[in-house]
Amino acid sequence: MLPGRGRNGRAAGLARILGTRTAWTAAGDGEFFCPGCGGDRNYQRLTGQRRFTVLGLPVLPRGETGPVVECAACRRHFGTDVLDHPTTTRFSAMLRDAVHTVALAVLAAGGAGSRTALESAVLAVRAAGFDDCTEEQLAALVEALEADTGRITGEPCGAGLAIELHEALDPLAPHLATVGRESILLQGARIALADGPYTPAERDVLATVGAALTICSDDVTRVLAAAARTPS
After folding, report:
1. What are the residue boundaries of the Co-chaperone DjlA N-terminal domain, all occurrences included (predicted)?
2. How many CA atoms lie within 13 A of 162 on its CB side?
């Protein structure tokens, strides 16, 4: 046992004499969602230079390390992929814009002239965060959307409208669980059903919404059928 202790003691002593140290340098900052804190925090992006030390003093470079993201609150370090997750504020804005775009797309499929469809769309958009949304505003935006995309009310989802949907939904989809993605599709379905059964144009728009949210076609069919069976 004594020889073993002697070896352990020598190893511990050597570790106190020789070691490595990382010197961090700030390379940027911003706001991010900190997984450690569970909320939005400020961060610094750090790059590191590792050095071999003797008695705690750096003597030889041992290469670079990082970059890492350091939370200004908890001081924990994370990989830079943590910056791919939107902040709570940004996520709320993305979700709000997604619901707004889906509502406009469904109305453009034929519901803009229906008061019940407009009322349903206004409720969905207000719940998503646009508190001052009105039926008149949505109707005017549908007209502007049709003029911009060259689309005629009641036509299938054309390239211009599909682009609008993908621009709003593609960045959001990876950050939503399945139930969240289906919830957005379901809101669109309820707007479409507010003035009667789905039209072919409305089904086409909702299929595009489902595709942009990475919902498979079978699940899109299931969600639309479930919405149709549920009394409004």
Report:
1. 121-222
2. 11
pTM: 0.77
What's the pLDDT tens digit per position in 123-182? 999 999 999 999 999 999 888 877 765 555 555 566 678 888 999 999 999 999 999 999
Pull the structure tokens for residue 26: 């700030």
Residue 125: is it exposed, middle or buried by C-beta count within 10 angstroms (0-12/13-18/19+)? buried
What distance in Å separates the CA atoms of residue 152 and residue 73, rounded to the nearest whole number?
52
Tokens 């352990």 locate to 8
HSE at residue 207, side-chain half, CA atoms within 13 A, is 13
**pLDDT tens column, 43-73:** 999 987 777 656 666 656 666 677 999 999 9
Name the token pair of 199. 């039209």
Distance separating alpha carbons of residues 162 and 97, to the nearest angstrom: 15
For the purposes of burial, counting CB atoms within 10 Å of the CB of 142, is it exposed (0-12), middle (13-18) or buried (19 or more)?
A: buried
Q: What is the pLDDT of residue 1?
A: 43
